[in-house]
Amino acid sequence: MDHLVKQRVAVIPARGGSKRLPKKNIMDFHGKPMIAWTIEAALESRLFDLVLVSTDSEEIAAISKAYGATVPFLRNEHADDFSTVSEATISALKQLQDFNGKSYETVVQLMANCPLRSSKSIREQVEAFEAQKSKFSLLSGFKYGMFNPWWAHERKEDGSFQKVLTAKSENTRSQDLPELICPSGATWISNCNRLFEYGTFYSDDYRFHQISWIEAVDIDDEEDLSLAKSAYLLLHESI
Length: 239
Known about the structure:
With 239 residues, this protein is an alpha/beta fold. The protein has 2 domains: 2-142 and 183-234, Spore Coat Polysaccharide Biosynthesis Protein SpsA, Chain A, CATH 3.90.550; 145-178, no CATH class. 31% of the residues lie in helices and 20% in strands. The protein has helices at 34-45, 58-66, 85-100, 119-131, 192-198, 213-216, 222-235, and strands at residues 8-13, 28-29, 32-33, 50-54, 106-110, 138-143, 153-155, 161-163, 181-191, 207-210. The strands form 3 sheets. Strands 4-1-5-9-6-10 form a 6-stranded mixed sheet, sandwiched between helices. A two-stranded antiparallel sheet has the order 2-3. Helix 1 crosses helix 4 (119-131). The longest helix is centred in the middle third of the chain and has 16 residues, at 85-100. The chain is globular, with a radius of gyration of 19 Å. The two termini are 34 Å apart.
């Protein structure tokens, strides 16, 4: 698989305007800036011609370069609160092509706020993607456990409750319910042309690659951060 490295690019979107956790992408996480964990995992996988950080922040750019990422430009669009991450990655790919004149076959989007995803996990998912004949978009996700949405209830305005998912009988045993997968921003993979065509990683017939809930932790607020810090200790409990 490594002989195809010239056809793969890793894109780490990391804008500077996080509201819920200010400077989230570079805040300290167990001794390193959060984005450093993702950069190092991407480099350690040895799968990419380029590990590109797409950011609108000079501070994030400087830190990313210090940890070995390539940051040849600042993001020139889709750095607002409304653009999707897919749009930011597409913009980065177009900027990169304008910058170095190169086209890539495969893009692997790695979110900086998923610091527990390992290089091994990246490699396994890329291998699974490459093994697909049709190269469907392959998104990371984890199997729901105790917080299973099949049991979710919505509070109505009058104070009463109703089930959110009603496709199955209320009497269905938990072990008989269909498996549900929760998407994680850890690792999303697509053919570049297909990403340009659809404008999202959720192209027709996208697939999921299951990872552990620990590697899937996606940090957006203080509770997520506390969970990720605890999950890190579980991964390194022999320390």
